[in-house]
Amino acid sequence: MISHARVPLEHQRPYGTAYEQMLEKVRYEGAYPTREKADEAVRLVLAGLGRQLTGDERVDLAARLPLEAARVLTAQIPDTQPLTGWAFVKDLTARTGASLGTTRWDTGSVFSAVAACAGPDLITRILGRLPSGYALLFGRAELAPAA
Question: Considering the entire predicted model, what is its pTM?
Answer without folding.
Answer: 0.86
